Structures are given as C-alpha cells and as structure tokens.
Predict the 3D structure of the following.
Amino acid sequence: MLVDTAIKNAKPKEQPYKLTDGKGLYLLVKSTGKYFRFNYRFQDKQKTLALGVYPDVSLAGARERLAEARKLIADGIDPGEQRKMDKEAATNLNSVEAVAREWFLKNKHTWTDNHARDIITRLEANVFPWLGRTPIADVTAPMLLAVLRRIEDRGAIETAHRIKQMCGQVFRYAVATGRAERDPSADLRGALPPPPSKSMATITDPKGVSALLRAIRGYKGEIITRCALRLAPLTFVRPGELRHAEWADIDLDRAEWKIPPEKRKLKKALKAIPQNFHFVPLSRQALAVLRELQPLTGEGRYVFPSLRTGERPMSENTVNAALRRMGYAKDEMTGHGFRAMASTLLHEQGWPSDVIERQLAHKERNSVKAAYNYAQHIPERRKMMQAWADYLDALEKGADIIPIFAAAG
C-alpha cells in the first residue's frame, strides 16, 4: 500500500517506474511528473485508465476515482469508454445539434406528429451533417448561408426558407438559454431568392383532408376556436364571414344562416340591395357545432367572440394561428383554404358548377343578377351541403371515400 510520504519522496529515474497501491492502482513516476493509473481487464482486454496527476490529485482522491471505476466495471461498463462518452457529451452540450434537439423536445408537444417528424428529419438531413458538431455560439451568418446554399442549389428554394426559419428558432432558443449571443439567421434577410409564388394554400387530397379533420377534432386550444375550425370546412364561407357570424343571422330550427351584405365582399351598390344576403344551408353536423357552442356564446352578439372581450368578433388571425399550432405552415393551409378545398372536391365529384358557385358566393358584377343569386338552387344547395358534411365525416373517420354526388343521388 502506498503512503503519501513515499509518493512525495519518489524521484524520477532514467526509465519510468511504478509504485503499486493495490486493486490495480499504481503511481507511474516519470521525468515529466507523477501519474496515478489503474490497470484493469474488460471483456478479456487489458486496459489502463488515467486517474490524475499528483499532487493535483491526492492519493485519497485517486483511491476514490478507483472505487468509482471499479463500480462501473462491476455494473458491466467500461470506465474508459464511459469517460470518452462523458467528455464527448460535455463537449457537444452546446453544439448546434445538441441545442437543436433540446429545442425540438421542448416544443414537440405543440406540433402534430407528422409536422414534428418533418422538422427533425429536415434538420438531420440538411443541417446536422455540416453544422451539427459546431458550438452554436461559433456559427456565423456565412456558415449558415453555406448550408442553405446547398439546399438552394438542388432547387428546393421553399425548403431552404423553411430551414432558415427553423434555424432561427433554434438560435433564439440558444440565446434565451445562455449558449449563444445572437441569431445569425437574422443577417440573411434577402440572401435567398424568394420561393416561387403559389396559389391560395389549401389541401385537396382526400388523405390530407382526413388528417386535417382529425387534427381539428383533437385541437387542444380554446373551445370557441375549435368550433370555428370545425365549422369552417362544413360551411366554407369566407374567414371574415365566419368570424363575424352573429346569432341573430342563424336560425337553428330552419337550419339556415343568412349572411348580410355588409359582412361580405360586395360593392356599395350591391350592399344597397336588401335581399342580397348569402344563404348558407346548415347540415346536421354544422348544427351540432353551433348547438355545442350556443350555451357558451349564445347570450352574446357574436357566435365566435374575441377571447378577450365578447364585444368584438374573434381576431382575423385566430384560425390561422390555430392551424400553425396544429403544425400546418402558411403555405400548406389557411382559413381561406377551406373554400378552395370544397370547390375543388365538389367539382371533382360531379356537383353542378352553378350550384357550387352560388354556395361559394363569388362576387357578381351584375347587380340585377346578384340580387337574385341568394335564392338560386336552394334545394340543390341544401342537398349538396348535407352530402358534403357526410363526406367530411367519412374522411375524418377513415372510411372508404365515396363520390358524394353519386351518394347524394
């Protein structure tokens, strides 16, 4: 057994030599210093673990480290490999990948499963291979731009913009947690070409519609917002008409909603025509949503009042913000997109164009003709709106997709 005086008095010789303590611990004396070492066998291999340099580490300290190493071996863990892993983890704690994964786990619960999967997959494929091991505080705007240029060079301009946005969120999280001074993505404004223009963001693939409807059904936010999200595809009115809906305009017994001209996109001349309201037949499903909401907001003016005050309708950003919260980007789906969704699918499934157009209430330049549009095709529109709601129900439940015009016939 070693004692402190023997270690203190040990002098270097021409060749390094050992002073043994027991249980594999020894002091290696060299001309450059005195080193505590531990010889051990793991999986039939002879290995050596450095335990510190004397006098920075005392004999008692070396024995404590020896005990920790031997406990790891008893648990089936190689102390040398464990040290490497611990060192790598400490080194990478503030790396881009480590911070990004931490940010992802903190926010994952706010996204849909598909959106969360898209985020981490895009980071793993486009960012981590080039910046993953870099300390996040050392990343500069040119370094980030080089990563985005690789995406741009393969023609994925929209993806490059999304990656830039994701990285900005990660960098801002790093700033908030004290691991970076600033967000370098803010310096890249205008560095990427704008993404190609697209038509109004909507979803028209039945499988995508099915997923959206299930996401709406599972929305965890305010009940008023959830009801607005549920009613939007059932009625496909304009977002402004939806949020300005008043109980006085809705007759639940007659299953109809008459939207006054002042709440629609009409010219002043057309607004002067008293009967020029928009007629919305209410399906059984739409009535169910309204009856669910009536005990909550039915005593007030608005069907969907502001969450802050019942004196105003909900904000124009409420529905879009809820869609973002569910994981749908602004170029994937918007509140206005429910109209394009209905128009596309109803046309595809054989409903007469005149019936669809009257229900969409597209603007009519001829004021005389517009005055009578409200009453056109009402029986067909009632039939179509109920068939449409039944179709959406089937999609949400994952049933076989049946052409709704044929089913309605």
